[in-house]
Amino acid sequence: MYKHKNLKIICFGAITILLVMSMVPSIAMEINSIKQVENLISVQNQGSDYSLLIISPRIFKNSLTPLLTHKINRGISTNIVTLDEIYASQYSQPGRDQPEKIKYFIKSAIERWETKYVLLVGGAIGQLPLWYLPVRHIEMGNSFESHFISDLYYADIYDESGVNFSSWDSDGDGNYAEWYSGEIPEDTNIDLKPDIALGRLPCRNVFEVKIMVDKIIEYETIGKNGAWFNDMVVIAGDTYPEIENPEWVGYEGEFYGDLALENMSGFDPIKLFTSDGTLTGQSDVIKTVSNGCGFLYFVGHGNPTTWGNHPPNNKKFITGLTTQNMWKLNNNKKYPVCVVSGCHNCQFDVSILKFTDKISIYHGEVAFECWGWRMTRKIGGGSIGTLGTTALGFTKEDKASFEGGINELEVFFFNQYGQKDIEILGETWKAAITAYIDTYPVHWSASTEELINDSWIDAQVVQSWILIGDPSLAIGGYL
Predict the structure, then answer these.
(1) I need a labelling partner for 127 at 20 to 30 A (CA). Which of 140, 275, 411, 442 fits?
(2) Residues 6+ apart with CB under 8 A from 321
(3) C-alpha gyration radius of the chain
(4) Are 346 and 385 in contact (CB under 8 A)?
């Protein structure tokens, strides 16, 4: 009994220390940054239009100024607007809460400044359940998860008319994008098509902001410097072994990996597949990715800290890469655009403080950071941007044939770049979602008063798919 009591005291003390450590640097940086920003003369171009709108809390503005200068020098008119300015702005007053005020301000930026790209900068404050830049949790889910983050909320500004503001809460009950399995959606003003290209850097402190600013400037400045950019690495396996899913025949991960490669004309394929023994564990992935590549595609299963897949028709799970081992990636200055197919790999609201919640433990949400953010903000390696899901990554669960789901959305992404020559990262994200919704239309039509498609799964696929990165990023850089 005495030992157990001591253990509890030790655990409580450790958690208290972590809480203090997460708060003190943020408070100190806040005070210092406020003083700097108050004396800062913004380095902005003087035009009336801003192609790129960077939204951040005031604490990050000073650290973002080099990125603003870099973008302007590259011919991209850019403006940094802080949350304080947005909340005080006449253009965001209709909003009922902070996320809606931000969304209204984005609407005004599109209409006043002809804004094309919006970069949200800010994640959780350390490990606390507080936000530097707020998120919108939506009620589009199943019995396994009642709600999840959707940054598409901030990009889908208008309803199907292209004129009216889409609140994602047409019934006004304060619950957003409500649509549950087997039911008709309760919120019906959502067309799911992004009206701007949007990405987020879920930075939890000024240090992470500086990491990403430096990586983006470095990437766009160096450009396609070397043969490494022409390599595309695909890592996959048998996502649904027939031994557990008799009706799903084939190696799904490898199938979609090959399909993605077919869309990337001119890229040299490098495959790590469980079927041929080239993927046996994390060392294979770390060694290959450390050589650098232009694109990186993981196709399989995941949680907030782990990605992997199965050998052919085998229940065994081969771990491909975890957050704990990403420090070993040393592809310095050879950063790929990374697409990860796996549940919750980009769920950036994880925290070590969720250890008391059984569902969070089950989903692997008790963690310092998620897989997608760790991959992106890695110093000296990792990716320049990561696309993945903040929720369960459904594939073909609602389809009779081998189509639809998160994997097909990912293939649409590669098609936009490889076949449609869309070379701006956020535009590629935007075009992929639009192409998916055009293929699997899924919304309530106000004009006909009828439900177009009844698949809440297709809706969840696009609503949970997030770009962690700069939406205005020139893929491959400018040189």
Answers:
(1) 140
(2) 282, 285, 286, 298, 306, 307, 308, 371
(3) 22
(4) no
Tell me, what amino acid is at 351? S
Which residue, chain included where needed, has tokens 């702005």? 89
Residue 254: count of CB within 10 angstroms of its CB: 25
Domain-located, residue 249: yes
What number of residues does the chain have? 479
Q: Is residue 447 part of a domain?
A: yes
Going 310 to 312 to 314 to 316, the CA torsion angle's sign is: negative
What's the confidence (pLDDT) of residue 2?
A: 33
Q: Hey, which bits of 167-229 come out as E strands?
A: 179-180, 197-201
On whether the CB atoms of residues 336 and 292 are closer than 8 A, the answer is yes
Maximal CA-CA distance, the chain: 70
Domain holding 263: CATH number?
3.40.50.1460
Backbone angles phi, psi at 273, to 5 degrees: -115, 145
> pLDDT value at position 448?
66
DSSP state letters, 82-148: EHHHHHHSGGGTT-SSHHHHHHHHHHHHHHHH---EEEEE--BSTTSS-BSS---EE-EEBTTBS-E
Number of domains in the chain: 1
Confirm whether 40 is domain-assigned. Answer: no
* Residue 160 resides in a domain: no
Pairing verdict, β 385-389 and 465-468: antiparallel
Whether 341 and 253 have beta carbons less than 8 Å apart is answered as yes
Which residues does the chain have with pLDDT short of 70?
Answer: 1-48, 141-144, 180-183, 396-402, 443-454
Instruction: Provide the 3-class DSSP secondary structure of residue 320.
Output: strand
CA-to-CA distance for 269 and 258, rounded, in angstroms?
Answer: 9
d(CA 95, CA 103): 8
pLDDT (0 to 100) of residue 355: 86
Check residue 143 and give its pLDDT: 59
Going by C-alpha positions, the residue among 335, 374, 365 that lies closest to residue 223 is: 335
pLDDT score of 193? 96
pLDDT of the residue at 361? 82
Structural contact between residues 313 and 351, judged by C-beta atoms closer than 8 angstroms: no
